[in-house]
Structures are given as C-alpha cells and as structure tokens.
Amino acid sequence: MAGGIKLWPEGERPRERLLKNGAEGLSDAELLALIIRTGDFSAKVSAIDLGRELLRKFGDLRGLAQASVAEICRIKGTGPAKAASIKAALELAGRCSSESLSSGDRYTAPSQIFQHFQNRFKNRKKEHVVALLLDGKNRIIREVPISEGSLNQSIIHPREVFNPAVRDSAAAIILVHNHPTGDPTPSREDLELTRRLKEAGELMGIRVLDHVIIGDKNYVSLADKGYL
Q1: Interacting residues of 63 by C-beta distance below 8 A, sequence separation 6+
Q2: What is the distance between the alpha carbons of residues 134 and 145, in angstroms, rounded to a whole number?
Q3: N or C: which end of the chain has fewer CB within 10 A?
Q4: Residue among 49, 2, 18 at smallest CA distance from 10
Q5: Where is the signal peptide (predicted)?
Q6: Is the CB of residue 149 less than 8 Å from the CB of residue 88?
Q7: Where are the domains of the chain?
Q8: Strand runs (DSSP E) across 135-218, as ranges?
C-alpha cells in the first residue's frame, strides 16, 4: 500500500495490530517496520517496504543480524540511526533467547556456558574471547570481555585474563570463545593458549576450570576432552 503507514486504515497499521492482537501475528517485515519507524519519504517508500527490502537483501532475520552497520546503511532509505536500532533489537532478541548465567549462579557443567553464549555468538564474524570469574564455590562473580580477534585468530596474553581475576579475588576462571566458522573443533592455537593459561593459573593459585569453544549448534569443553 502506497504512502506512509500513518495514512493507512487504522486496522492495517502494524502498531495498532500489535497492540490489539499481540506481536505474533505480524510478519518479519512488519516487526522491522516498528523498529525502523519511518520509511524513505523521498521515494514514497513505507517502513514496511523498507523492512521487506532489508529482508530481500540479506535473506532473512539471521542474515540481517550478521550484516554490519555499514552494509545496512547501503540500503536506500536507511542510515546510522535505523541501522543501530535494527542491530540493537536483533542483539536483544538473541540475548533473550539464551539461558542466562548471572552473578551468584553456580557453575556445574559446560552446557550452561553453551546455553548462555550460543545466541550471542552465533552471528559474530570475529572471534570474541570472554572470561567468567568464579569464587571458591564455583559461583559466577562476573563476566569479563578479554579480546576481539580477527576472523581466524585472537591473540591473548595471560595477564589480560588474570588481571581482572586478581582484582576480583576470583578462585577460578572459565575461558569462553567462539569459532565464527561454526565448527567448535579446537585449533592448535586453542590448545596452546589453554596450556599457557593453565600453567599461569597454577603459579597464581587461580584454577582454570575449563575452556569452552562455542560453535553454531554445539560446543567443545577442553576440560571434558582432558586438556585441563
């Protein structure tokens, strides 16, 4: 339907339909329209038209989540503000669908780590390394970002991992990182990093409980594999 959404009959506007019947009945393009809010007035394109174009360009919501801000901004009618809103909404959706590990929660199994991080990491194009700091009863103190690497590698020094652990009086740490390829099989560098961190932790009296590598649909625990 041509023209801005405000000119549409009230019963056909996405916001009014959501308020009346809930979000479940709206299409992906209509939900995007509520995030985008306005279309391209110069081209007489509505927010829904713009949502459809974004989905056409990137394939689906997952493809849109994987797109960079610069890539989204290349779509006529979008800009940094719209791109930021889209990225924020899709990131929140990913975090909401994950089972959260919060401060004070007790760590019991690497599957908890996978459930916590899988949706956050699945659209990342670079490796992201995170350390979970734990107390003497294996309760989560906090999560610390350690490194954002290139597509194929992250370079980490033990001090970057253990400095926050010392400051927070952590008794143990769990290292977590993603493989953007989706395959969590540990690389030679992963194993070498784990060995170095284990040795450094033994000297400092801080246990390295695990190094969990997150893939697209599964994970590898190096503790389960016998490397720790």
Answers
A1: none
A2: 15
A3: N
A4: 18
A5: none
A6: no
A7: 5-96, 110-221
A8: 140-148, 172-178, 207-214
Structure tokens at 96: 């909401």
Q: What is the CATH number of domain 5-96?
A: 1.10.150
Decide if 194 contacts 225 (C-beta within 8 A).
no
Determine the 3-state secondary structure of 202 from DSSP: helix
Each residue's pLDDT tens digit in the chain (228 positions)?
444 565 566 567 788 888 888 888 888 999 998 998 887 666 677 888 899 999 999 998 888 988 889 999 999 889 999 999 998 988 787 766 555 677 888 889 999 999 888 878 877 888 999 999 999 999 999 999 998 876 455 568 888 899 999 999 999 999 999 998 889 999 999 999 999 999 999 999 999 999 999 998 899 999 999 988
CATH of domain 110-221: 3.40.140.10
